[in-house]
Every structure is written in structure tokens, then in C-alpha cells.
């Protein structure tokens, strides 16, 4: 029997409904730019709350589905993803350990309770005790680990003022163990990481956080590949139809999702911080669409076929024109340099003027034959 893909769209609403029924208060997804100086974009459901946590404010018991972005999420990962989140005052840590996994199972009925497993640090006896007293988790397979084996400790941002220690959740897949040492948390594909429940320690108070990746949870229904999710697969197919090479189409789709989210957050390309991340994404995508050195009409045509959103397409075209103009200026300077120093190598041109090596070699061949 085929899987009803509309079930995937209900994941977030069911997660929130389960927690509201337990007395949690739903909070809206914050903008991607709702951060402090320690991170560039919201990269976890906790991030928008950091000023309050650092101040020691009371949070109560909250739940949210937060849009997040990590600039290191190249395919087969995703730059933009959702986080099924819970955040509560530290006195509710036991409740979060019990009720966050319950909400996860209610949100994603394709997950099997008897396939859940957890990893907890050897040194965190109090967390292991919470597992043993939990009605939901007392029977799950548990593995005692060190942080080097499976992450059990975290720092929220570069300043280190918020730290955490917690329990990592996995779902066992229908694959054979990779070997006799295969255990909860092994990266062979048998254990799909779902997320964590974490005790967060701040300067003035401690808190309880839970975070489960929305797309990883959804993708388990489709074999574990986030690029098999209908919206991502459709966008990947669109990239191929626009002329992007098959092997590059998933990353192109990943980039379109990222630049779309950043455009909606009013992030514009530039030289520093989030603006630099936006420019890096735009230029990589433009390269995949042939804007680096293809004919002007060809890359524009591909772009419009690949990116139906007029606002996002406008941002890409503006950056593409800026990029091509800069490349043209660099090539003019390189040619001038070659006339003055015809013995200059392609390597020298590439390093001095920022020209791609392939183009620099061609310029050297045009002047006086190829020189490596």
C-alpha cells in the first residue's frame, strides 16, 4: 500500500497539538535573523530565546516549529530545515523527557516506539535515572557513551555562556548491523538520529530543551532521504529540467531553498556575516546555472526556469550581473598583465586576479601557448 504523502504535512501540527494538550504554550517561528552575535542565523529552536535564557527569565513550558538555517548543510543535508522544539524551565526537565518523545511519536506515526533508542553520557547518571522512570522510555534500548562517540554536550554559540548536556534519540531502521560492534549511534545508517532532549545551563538558571529535525523525521517514512520529500524532490527535478547536471541538481535545489528563505528574511548579499553567506549561496547557484561564463541569454533563461519566484529570481539576476561584471573586469586586468608579462602562468593569473583556473589556462593559450 502506498504512503499518503499528505501525512508528512501534518507532522508539525500534530507535534504542537500533542504538547498543547499537555499544557505547553505554542510560540511562533521566529525570523531567521532573530539571533545574537554568537550565531549568524537561527540554527536551533532555542536560538531566539537566548537573550531570555542568558538573563535567567522564566520561560514556562513552550513548544514551536522553528525554521532554521545552517550554512554547512551541503547535499545530502539541507541548509534550511524545521525544528520540532520544546523549551521549558529547568524544573520541567522530567516532563520534557517524558512528553517530548510522546509528541514526536504522535506527530510521526510511521515511527515505531519499539524502534526508539537513546544514547546518554556515562557520567550523566541523573539523566539515566530519568530514562528509567519514564513511562515512554524505560523500555527503549539505551547505550552509555562518551561525548567522542555520540555528542552528549553542547555549547550554544561561540561565547560559551549557554551550555547543555543531554540525551540523543535514534530510530532503528530495517538494515542489518554493519558488524559486531554496531550499536546505538553507529553511523552505518542503521540508526537514524532524531534529535535531543537537553538540560541547558545558563549564567542564572537552567532549562529543558528538546529538538527534533522535521525533515529527518519526515524522511524516515520515505527511506531516510530528505531529498525524497515531495517538495524537495519536485524542486530537484526542476533543476534538472532547467539544465543543471544530474549530480548537481540536489545541491542546486538545496541552494534555491536557502536563498528563498534568506530573501524572505530580507537578507541581501554582501561581504560580511549573513550577507556573505547569502552571496556565497547565490554565486554557487549561479555557477550551477551557467552564469559564470555562459552566454547572457542562456543563464537568464535557465534561472527563470529554475526559480519561479520573481523576487528570488530578481536577487539572483542582480547578483549574477554584478558577478559577471566583476569577472569581466578581472579578465581585462589579467589580459593587461599578460601583455606586460607574457611568461605569466595560469596559476599566477588565477591567484592574482581571482579567475577560474580553466579560464586562466585558456587565456595563456591564446597569448603564447599553454603554460601550467
Word description of this protein:
The chain has 2 domains: 6-224, Bira Bifunctional Protein, Domain 2 (BirA Bifunctional Protein, domain 2, 2-Layer Sandwich), CATH 3.30.930.10; 230-340, no CATH class. 42% of the residues lie in helices and 17% in strands. It has helices at 6-9, 11-20, 50-55, 93-107, 125-133, 214-219, 230-241, 249-264, 273-288, 296-306, 310-340, 346-353, 357-368; strands at residues 25-26, 61-69, 80-89, 116-121, 141-145, 153-155, 163-172, 191-201, 206-213. Helix 5 (125-133) links the parallel strand 4 (116-121) and strand 5 (141-145). Helix 2 packs antiparallel against helix 4 and helix 12 crosses helix 13. The model has no long low-confidence stretch (mean pLDDT 92).
> Which percent bin holds the helix content?
40-55%
- Rounded to the nearest angstrom, the distance between the terminal CA atoms is 59 Å
β-strand percent reads 15-25%
Structural class label: alpha+beta
Uncertain runs: none
How many domains comprise the coordinates?
A: 2
Q: Give the helix tally.
A: 13
The whole-angstrom Rg is 24 Å
What is the third-level CATH name, the topology of the largest domain?
Answer: BirA Bifunctional Protein, domain 2
CATH superfamily of the largest domain: Bira Bifunctional Protein, Domain 2
Mean pLDDT: 92
CATH class annotation of the largest domain: Alpha Beta
So, CATH architecture of the largest domain?
Answer: 2-Layer Sandwich
Structure summary, number of beta strands = 9
Order of helices and strands: HHEHEEHEHEEEEEHHHHHHHH
Characterize the overall form: elongated
Biggest beta sheet summary: 9 strands, mixed
